[in-house]
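Following up on my earlier thread - several people asked me to post the actual chain instead of describing it. Fair enough. Here it is, all 99 residues.
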Amino acid sequence: MEMKERIDLLAELSGLKIEDDEREKLVADMDSILGYVDKLKELDIESKSYIRVIIDGDDCREDVVVGASEAERRAVLASFPAITKDNLLEAHAVLDHKV
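Reply from S.P.:
Thanks for posting it. Predicted structure:
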């Protein structure tokens, strides 16, 4: 698949309208990025030693579950359009575009 076709597909999937001049710039940008990635693939990284940073577990915060008040719970539930029969929260639609 050519880069122009990939950009057209991404535009369709994301619901974006891309003008021809923008598409040509995106094609050039993507070709440049992928060319750089190809250059990075040529690097010899096997012979390099790396410094690894290990995080001490004592430096991390403890996860604490904090309950919500009934008013907070009702406010959150009210922001959803529906609750399914399985008690799942149904979110508002983000995209109207069907692919």
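The two ends are 19 Å apart (CA to CA). That should answer part of your original question.
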